[in-house]
Predict the structure.
Amino acid sequence: MVLLQLFSAELVPHLMVRAPLKELVCSRGNLLRGASVEDLVGVFITERGSSYALPQLGRLTERLLCLLCQNRGRQRRELVHILEDCDTLFASLCDRGPRLRQALDYVARIRLFVVEYFLLLGFECELYSAEECDSVYFNLYQVKCELLSNHAPIPIDVPSRELHTALNDIALNLSRALFETLSALQDFNVLPKKTFELGTRKSWYTLRFGKLYGTTLPALTMSAEQERTLLQGYADYESYVSARDMLRTGNSAGLELDAPDLELEARESMRLFARLQTSRKGFLQAQKQCGVASSAASGDAVRRHVRSLLRCCVTNALNVR
């Protein structure tokens, strides 16, 4: 959406049939004010020697924009193919060395957006069971961690950058808090745990999220051969299990659970309360970021979106008290 904002004279959404909208995106039409998609990519890729990458990045971006003109179910199916294209293009650009750092960062950003959108569309298409939502929020949290920690700021004006950062912070804190909340409720049998009739939990996790494992940008000091090791999973099964284990062991510090007069049920209630209070901090932090996003928002549609996020934060913070 940042790409469209840079070249759109009015940020007012219009109702439009998908096919004509797709034609506007793919041609030098009024939607992009006479610019091609490759021109849009050139706003972000300014380093010398990037002419090799611009046509490929333009095609990738155009495919993503055209995909957004389709229905939700078809979008989710096509997103898997765009992930494969991102990995192939990333490997090709790595062969060119560190001088294409901006291009590599651009592909990585596209990939992170695709992963996030793929996961969110699963909710809209009602593909997740209640028992597996914690793993979905874990993946969303890891995507935002990767985006905020390993990528340079987007070259846009300061108010838009503040809004973009605030929205990412809200999503990060909400995803983390929801993951912590659902994990706690499952560990203490308030919510049912997922059962696996075929295979193991690891095989299920790999089938569900295996294609989404993240591409981490390698250090510039690496050789081209080393840079080909792209799939350094930041949301793989081992990371998921480790995060769940840390939540189980890291929230009982300071609680007097060894007192002989405490019954088992009371101890379990105290442990659950401690874990829910930890997750509540995430909801409250996201609530604060909603204020930052609201002050930086410049359109009614964005303000409505921020208000909906704020309601989500407040409701969940109250429910886990």
